[in-house]
Write a structure and sequence with these properties.
The complex is a heterodimer of chains A (322) and B (258). With 322 residues, chain A is α/β, with parallel strands linked by helices. Chain A contains eight helices and 18 strands. In chain A, helix 2 links the parallel strand 4 and strand 5. Chain B has a single domain, classed as 3-Layer(aba) Sandwich (Rossmann fold). In chain B, 26% of the residues lie in helices and 28% in strands. Classes of the chains: A alpha/beta (322), B alpha/beta (258).
């Protein structure tokens, strides 16, 4: 048995569809007979990619200009649903905009939304979503019982993206209704921060620093090591909260989920909050002076030692190798 | 300027979490102020100071009339609190929580509502935007910088690539990321003063919310199972003798990373 229709909230950087969208399309194909993408932007720019991953249609709002996606896309979705176009299930990625749209939509259609899921399944007639809790040591499975549309937020890297061999998706206009006061917030400027090297959630190697670094200036070691390994620098919540590095560096429950080939944790004790975001890494190396640190329980190689002594030597050795 | 700040009182994250027999999170011990919320409280205090007047009102939902976390935020300088505590809220989901908080916020005068981006225990991350929709207000999530001037809130909103500058007329709802400001430690004077600050405790009925529409009765979801996740095994653990970095080099060479 399959659902008759699944929507996937699609996101893109320019005309490059985000990986999380492609991951969800693969899952949606497994669950539904018909898969459609909903896109807050120009549908023609993404129709080929979305189609190749199994979307038969892309319902697109057209360029949103200075509007925020939260109210605009949820408003457009709610109108379509009211008009009788309701899907059985809508999948959103756990992203900045994905959460906004899902949350606003849940109020508009008065249905619950389940967050942070790593799996979605159809059991009988019901949608059951899986959420890791307590640092990913346990999985809570929750059944939605409020009827359609079922709304589920999915964590990135939960599914493997896979092409379906389909042709370009048909583009259909999705109109944004008058948003009233909810649409009053406007984007007046966009700033792209210069980033060298791979993105945190796409890097093959991630080097993260935590409180054990001692002070903000020592984060430079993390960046240097990441650069030497052609990887991305990450951080624990503790040092993001302390203002040492921006939120965009945060790995964990409240930050990014990463699954690199190699994850190197420097001065990170391994709070459950952090582990849930990185325990899916293929290989984990940890350096921490506390032999009891929980991070060692999931590390393939654990060095009980002072990051200020181990890391500079490691950097020197890697530099010497060229 | 008056600011309502949503704060959550959570089990101490330093303690291992546990589930009740009904698989909800155990919250019957002492609860503390979610550290994520201390940033919103601090930001609100600073914005009210800068505006030259007004007050900060805390809005919270918690079991067993819990006020420990609220007292911490009152000690930081918030003027008063509204607490919704009702047995009918057992099993409440994110949407229920947003409905309760939105109704409670309406009991106070506000120009701005501040929240964290998500709580540290439930971490659904949908409540701020749901509150905005319920109050029919504009919102900006993931603020890493906030300024208010002439009835407009200007926010730097975190994005994947950097940040967007977003402007919204007041009233509005803004969720702040951790690290946006440095939360103050309550002073002794603040702690003493907090003891006598008003906490208005209300029930669902006071908010005009039907108990059958929220909590287990109305959440629209049920937990079917809690399973153990696949465990990762610990590998080699070595004590640094000054040469342990060689182990890392060899490990990386073996993986052909270098």
């Amino acid at each position: 048995m399959a659902l008759s229709k699944v929507w996937v909230y699609a996101e893109a950087d320019g005309d490059k569809v985000k990986t999380i969208t492609l991951e969800m399309l693969a899952k949606a194909r497994e669950l539904g007979d018909t898969v459609e993408a909903v896109f807050g932007g120009d549908g023609d720019a993404v129709a080929a990619t979305l189609g190749a991953h199994g979307a038969s249609k892309v319902l697109a709002t057209g360029d949103l200009d200075d509007k925020l996606h939260g109210p605009a896309v949820s408003g457009a979705m709610a109108e379509a649903i009211k008009a009788g176009n309701a899907p059985d299930l809508i999948l959103f990625g756990t992203t900045y905009d994905g959460r906004d749209v899902a949350a606003r939509l849940s109020v508009k259609v008065d249905k619950p939304v389940l967050s942070n899921n790593t799996d979605v399944a159809l059991e009988g007639d019901s949608i059951v979503a899986s959420t890791p809790v307590f640092g990913g040591t346990q999985i809570v499975r929750t059944k939605l019982t409020a009827g359609t549309p079922n709304i589920v937020l999915v964590r990135p890297k939960s599914f493997a993206a896979e092409e379906s061999g389909g042709g370009a998706a048909a583009v259909e206009q999705l109109s944004v209704p008058d948003l009233g006061a909810t649409g009053a917030a406007k984007v007046v400027g966009r700033h792209v921060e210069e980033a060298t090297g791979p993105k945190l959630d796409e890097a093959e190697v991630v080097v993260s620093g935590g409180r054990g670094l001692g002070e903000a200036s020592k984060y430079e070691m993390v960046e240097t090591l990441a650069k030497l390994l052609k990887g991305a620098p990450g951080a624990s919540r503790a040092i993001v909260d302390a203002g040492w590095v921006p939120y965009s560096h945060q790995v964990g429950q409240t930050g990014k989920v990463v699954k690199p080939n190699v994850y190197i944790a420097l001065g990170i004790s391994g709070a459950t909050q952090h582990m849930v975001g990185m325990k899916g890494s293929k290989n984990i190396i940890a350096v921490n002076k506390d032999a009891e640190a929980p991070i060692f329980s999931i590390s393939d190689l654990g060095i009980v030692g002072d990051v200020h002594k181990v890391v500079p030597k490691l950097i020197e050795a890697l530099q010497a190798k060229g | 300027m008056n600011i309502a700040v949503c704060v959550k009182q959570i089990p101490d994250p330093a303690e291992p979490g546990a589930l009740n027999p009904d698989n909800t999170l155990k919250r019957d011990g002492k609860l503390i102020l979610d550290e994520s919320d201390s940033y919103g409280v601090e930001m609100a205090l600073q914005l009210v100071d800068k505006a030259g007047g007004g007050e900060v009102t805390l809005v919270s939902m918690a079991p067993n009339s819990e006020v420990s976390g609220l007292r911490t935020a009152l000690a930081m300088g918030a003027a008063k609190a509204i607490l919704v505590s009702d047995d009918g809220l057992k099993g409440a989901g994110a949407l229920d929580t947003a409905k309760v908080l939105a109704a409670a916020i309406k009991r106070t005068e506000f120009d701005l509502v501040l929240t964290a981006t998500e709580s540290s225990d439930g971490y659904t991350g949908t409540v701020p935007e749901q509150i905005a929709e319920l109050l029919e207000l504009p919102s900006v999530t993931f603020a890493k910088h906030i300024d208010v001037a002439d009835g407009t809130v200007k926010v730097q909103r975190q994005t994947e690539a950097g940040y967007d500058e977003v402007e919204s007329p007041l009233p509005a709802v803004v969720s702040v990321t951790a690290g946006v400001v440095e939360p103050r430690y309550p002073s002794f004077k603040g702690i003493m003063a907090a003891k006598s600050k008003p906490v208005d405790e209300v029930k669902l009925a006071d908010l005009g919310i039907d108990p059958n529409m929220v909590g287990w009765a109305g959440a629209g979801q049920e937990i079917v199972a809690v399973d153990k996740a696949e465990e990762r095994q610990a590998g080699e653990i070595v004590e640094d003798d000054g040469e342990a970095f060689q182990k890392i080099v060899a490990f990386l060479e073996n993986l052909k990373v270098i």
